[in-house]
Amino acid sequence: MFLPEVSRLKPYHDISRTDLLRSYLGLPDSLDDQDAIFFRIYQQSHRFHSMLLGLIIFYECVMLVLMAIRPGGPFLHLRRLTYILLYLSLLAATIFVLLYTRQLGRQMPQMIRRYFGVYHLYVVFLNLWSVGITLNDQLGGNSLIVYTCIVLSTAFFSMMSPWKSALLYLSDFILLNLMLPFFPCPNGLDQRFSNGINSLFLSLLALALSIYTYRSQIRLKADELLIERQYEEIQRSHQILRQEVMSDTLTGLHNRRYLHRTVAERFRRCREDGESAACIMLDIDHFKRYNDRYGHPQGDRLLQQMAQFLLHHDALKEADIIRYGGEEFALFLYGPVCAQALEIARRVVDSLARKQLPHWDNEGRRVTLSAGVCAEIPIPSDGTLEELIARADTALYEAKRTGRNRAVACPFRSSGSQKSASECGIPI
Q1: Cβ(39)–Cβ(217) under 8 Å?
Q2: How far apart, in whole angstroms, are the C-alpha atoms of residue 371 and residue 278?
Q3: Contact 137, 143 (CB under 8 A)
């Protein structure tokens, strides 16, 4: 089945007159948006379609019962037998389409083309059936009631492209008027002209309604799809901008803005829930000497290496890693793991030392780290993130004072207690 071109998803200046004509007629093209749009239409209308098919089944059953109980029985004459056969054919076709489309509905959206293909074939059958019923009606009088009801109804819910609708209703009109002379009115009235005029008006009206319904639905769903895509693009752009705003441009790590927003919020929740938090402050030993010897570009590369080292360290998978400033990094841990904060800091320090990154102006001629650790288990009610960082920073300076390439722990200030910097931790 061919689905319509959705030209509204293209910039107007990129649409040729040929494309506009193909779009208006609903001729096939290769746009991927077709399936997405028709799937939205399916989601909106499949319950109505099922109810409509169920109503037709109920109507046909009622008509069959009425025909069966009429005086003389259902086989009294050929005209009545024709009604029976027409009712049975529509009943069988409707039951098949209802069951088949329900089965296809479980495989959506992959089966959206087949669903509408089957549904459109049913619409064609229904219109041809209305022609057959109308011709049979002529033998008992002159009536276009069934033809009118079916044609106008299918115009509203068929969702056939304009060129298909034009072929359908033109074919119905031609077939009906070609066959009418063979089904004369029993009263001897010649109403072929009036029937022709009325059926032509109905066919044109149905075509206009079908095109209007089709294009309005396509336009509506195309606009919805476009708005959703624009919204998703805005969300992606917002996310990218947010990441850029909260990321350090050199290392790709989180920056202080992330610290003041995200880390501060996590710290607040931990405090309210009676959980633990820890801060590990890291500093590259003698980084100024490294820049002086190797140059600032090489110093920048070392900072980038440090960022990757921290991001991929097994012990820091659940940590917030922040470039605090210059060669200084802040690591934040939450929950039970805070009990091992000092051990984690020591592992990080030892792991970098084992990498043997050259630094000829440092002890051991390798790049090393100093670490200050502060953990509170749990966070006291009057605790603040700023004080946690300050105490970890105090421990960091103690680590540098006592020889570098080590980790020093300092407990977080508890309510009613004070510790001096000299009492803050034990070098490891």
Answers
A1: no
A2: 13
A3: yes
Q: How far apart are the first and last CA of the chain?
A: 74
> 383-421: per-residue pLDDT in tens?
889 999 999 999 999 999 888 888 998 865 544 343 433
Domain boundaries 256-423, corresponding CATH code: 3.30.70.270
Read off the tokens for 40: 């939205």
d(CA 137, CA 116) in angstroms, rounded, equals 31
- CA-to-CA distance for 284 and 305, rounded, in angstroms? 12
User: What averages of pLDDT result for each successive group of 10 residues across the chain (428 residues)?
Assistant: 41 50 51 75 84 90 87 78 91 92 83 87 93 85 83 87 88 89 71 82 90 85 84 82 74 87 90 90 90 88 90 88 89 90 91 85 83 88 88 91 88 44 40
Tell me if residue 311 falls in helix, strand or coil: helix
What are the phi and psi torsion angles at 15 (to 5°)? Answer: -100, 120
Q: Kindly name the residue from 5, 275, 327, 398 that is annotated as catalytic.
A: 327
pLDDT tens by residue, 158-190: 888 888 888 999 999 999 888 888 887 666 566
Tell me which residue of 126, 117, 154 sits closest to 38, measured CA to CA: 117
Domain boundaries, given as residue ranges, for the chain: 7-232, 256-423
Residue 39: how many CB atoms within 10 A of its CB?
20
CA–CA gap between residue 57 and residue 87 (Å, rounded)? 10
Q: Give the predicted TM-score (pTM) of the model.
A: 0.57
DSSP 282: E
* H or E element, residue 283: strand 277-284
CA angle 221, 225, 227 (to 5 degrees): 115
Residue 35: which H helix or E strand, with range?
Answer: helix 33-69
| Whether the Cβ atoms of residue 281 and residue 372 lie closer than 8 Å to each other | yes
Q: Are 287 and 305 contacting, i.e. CB atoms less than 8 angstroms apart?
A: no
Q: What's the pLDDT at 416?
A: 38
Q: What is the pLDDT at residue 75?
A: 75
**Under 8 Å between Cβ of 46 and 105:** yes
* Phi, psi (rounded to 5 degrees) for 283: -140, 135
- Is residue 327 annotated as a catalytic residue, yes or no? yes
Judge whether 395 and 424 are in contact, CB under 8 Å.
yes
In sequence order, the 6+-apart residues with CB closer than 8 A to the CB of 20 are 7
Q: What is the DSSP letter of 406?
A: S
Strand order, beta sheet including 369-376: 320-325, 328-334, 277-284, 369-376, 407-409
